[in-house]
Amino acid sequence: MASDARIMAKILSLAISNGAILRYGTLQGEINPFPQSSASAFPFGNRNNNDIERLQNLPAVPVDDRAAEVSQAVLFSGIVGGCVAINAFGGLFGMEDLTPITNLVVGIAITTVVVDNFFDAIVMGGSAVAKMNEDKLPAGAKNMSAPQKEDMPMGIGTGSMTGSVVRGLSRLLNVNTERDCQCEAAAVFAAYSLGLPCFAFQPNALEGASLVIDSMRSEPRSDDDAQNIQGSLDNLASDSGLLKMLIWLLAPVAMELSKYPQLMSSDPCEAQGFVNRLSDQARNNMQYASALLDALPENEEQADDYLRWALAEGDLLLRNNKNMVDAVSKALAGGAATVGDCVAILEEW
Amino acid sequence: MLRRDRRALCCMSAALIISTCVLRSESVVAFAPPATSAAKRRIQNSMLLESTANNGEMVLARDGDRLLNVAFSNLDDRDKYETVLTGLCAKVIDGGAANSKNGLVDPIRLMEESNSNGITIGPRGIISLVDVSVITLL
């Protein structure tokens, strides 16, 4: 990674000098810097009441524990699958005695999942059927009312008990290429329009942190050919640099949130991971400590503000350039698009 | 009757030889890089001269190189740079990621040269260059 971003930077720099590329990094100016909050004094940014008010009203960055969701889904599938297998083939191995137990386990598991996730639909359907057949109901049953969610034991009906299993199962079973391509297009567009020399389709914390650290290193000075193909990077260890990186990391999240209720293709944890990695570098590497500490948030509250602001700015960037992002997304969904093809679309060649 | 048949046979074989020559020349032109109609005419003229010099026989293997040169010299500078850059990048991509960094030296030098000459590279060249630089990230 160390020299590769420099190679990309060199090539883009040459292409810009050549006049072939006109739109790389042109939207940097449209990004609003982090506002200086009176409640938590930021060491950067302009004090702007509108921006502070906007920051306070921004929704939180969604969080999900996808590892736990997937592991719970696998566990659930394993138990149900095991019980069904015993029911089907247990007779061959003399395990008929276990059949009542496995039936009970499968019944409880499926009933719990169904009631927990479709409580409202079941209650609504039951009430409607009861109302339609009111005259046929016995006198005692006429006065009965449907149970409330709040009255159910163990929070059943709210989705909290088995919701993670369902979410995990949907993660495992749902493959949506179009959705993946939309997220990838958002990442490529954000990187290109913000002038970041990295066009990863799926940006991650490690790559982002490596790019920031690499941008802080001095430029290579050598007559060697391998060194000559490396360009210079803008220092990203600054307020604006960090904001650009966060927007890049959160662009897929912003894209997915604008179209779907649940995050499947994008991972909001990457942005937090990026801040954590840089914080570790600032603590452990004295060479970069000063510059990084100036740019990084001072505490968790500030870090949360950074992420919310970056997500909102990323969302705005993508909405304002929806046609372009959609065009890249369609090209990626076509299956034949390379990064060069994406650049061609972004440059409208 | 026999003379008439002989004449007819001679005419037919002459026509066959001529049509073969014409077909050969057309096929060579068809495989040459795209050129303007004026350029095509020049290529055909040069082939005609070559054909006359070789007593009407076409020497396709030797002509191949010359045709390439003629076709290439008929491109303008912008197309020349784009063609060579695309070719160099394709060669690096074919070589895989292992030697891509070393392979990038020539395309980058070519790009620098075109910049110094004030020649804008076409989209195909830039697309190839970006794709090659992405390979170095792998």
- Most extensive interface, residues per chain? A-B, 31 and 24 residues
Percent of residues of chain A in helical segments?
Answer: 55-70%
Give the biggest beta sheet of chain A.
none
Give me the Rg of chain B, rounded: 22 Å
Characterize the biggest β-sheet of chain B.
none
Question: Can you tell me about this structure?
Answer:
The complex is a heterodimer of chains A (349) and B (138). Chain A is mainly α and 349 residues long. Chain A has 16 helices and no strands. Chain A has 2 domains: 232 residues, no CATH class; 108 residues, no CATH class. Chain A starts with a helix and ends with a helix. Chain B is mainly alpha-helical and 138 residues long. Chain B folds into 2 domains: 72 residues, no CATH class; 59 residues. The radius of gyration of chain B is 22 Å and the shape is globular. About 16% of the residues of chain B have low confidence. Chains A and B meet through helix 1, helix 10 and helix 16 of A and helix 6 and helix 7 of B.
Structural topology:
The complex is a heterodimer of chains A (349) and B (138).
Chain A: H1 4-18, H2 49-57, H3 66-89, H4 99-117, H5 119-132, H6 139-142, H7 163-173, H8 177-193, H9 205-216, H10 225-228, H11 239-259, H12 269-284, H13 286-295, H14 300-320, H15 322-333, H16 339-346
Helix pairs in contact in A: 3-4, 3-7, 8-11, 8-15, 8-16, 9-12, 11-14, 12-13, 15-16
Chain B: H1 2-31, H2 37-53, H3 60-73, H4 77-95, H5 100-103, H6 105-116, H7 123-135
Short description:
Chain A is mainly α.
Question: Which terms would index this structure?
Answer:
heterodimer, B: 138 residues
